[in-house]
Design goal:
- The chain is built from four helices and five strands, in the order H-E-H-H-E-E-H-E-E.
- By secondary structure, the protein is an alpha+beta fold.
- The chain has one domain.
- The strands form two sheets. It has a three-stranded antiparallel beta sheet with strand order 1-3-2. Strands 4-5 form a two-stranded antiparallel ribbon.
- The chain starts with a helix and ends with a strand.
- Residues 1-94 form the Helitron helicase-like domain.
- It comes from Elysia marginata.
- One of its GO terms (molecular function) is helicase activity.
């Protein structure tokens, strides 16, 4: 683990801050997983299948990224972790070449009007934060699980050091 941290620091020293942070998460409802379950089995019963499919999809994703699907890549780095539910996910850092960088005006965060209703439902279900549907949540008009955040959102960030008082950060 220490060696991986040292590698990451070397990348930062050479290339600067990464341009993209991408997360790839296992979806237990992937067709490749559900097609290979026996009758009565659930995806969490076959962790070997979950991990194998995730690894293959991660390899495909990394191959596409390295071959320029988001632009010419100078460097890349990824780390695989397991969520509390046991599903693997990867954090990917990409350093994009100067001539291939994406400008913020090129990004559109609208939900596409899909030709099929299923695609739109899947996108909305997996990618968007919606109103809280947790039956234990007492404040259902707030955004999903806002009540778990310890501090309210503020327009300015203040930093307090021991004995220093407040200092505004820009």
């Amino acid at each position: 683990m220490f060696e991986k941290q040292q590698d990451a620091m070397a990348y930062l020293r050479k290339y600067g801050c990464p341009d993209m942070f991408i997360t790839v998460t296992t979806n237990p409802n992937w067709k490749e997983i559900t097609d290979h379950l026996l009758e009565g089995q659930h995806p969490h019963d076959r962790l070997d299948l979950l991990v194998r499919v995730f690894r293959l999809k991660l390899k495909q994703t990394m191959h596409a990224l390295k071959n320029g699907c988001l632009g010419s890549v100078d460097a890349w780095l990824y780390n695989i972790e397991f969520q509390k539910r046991g599903l693997p996910h990867a954090h990917i850092l990409l350093w994009i070449s100067c001539d291939s960088k994406i400008h913020p005006c090129m990004i559109d965060a609208a939900v596409p009007k899909s030709q099929t209703k299923t695609k739109t439902q899947n996108s909305s279900q997996l990618l968007l934060h919606t109103w809280c549907t947790d039956p234990w949540c007492t404040e259902s008009k707030r955004p999903m699980h806002e009540r778990w955040y310890m501090l309210k959102a503020v327009s300015k960030t203040l930093c307090k050091r021991h004995g220093d008082g407040n200092r505004q950060l820009s």
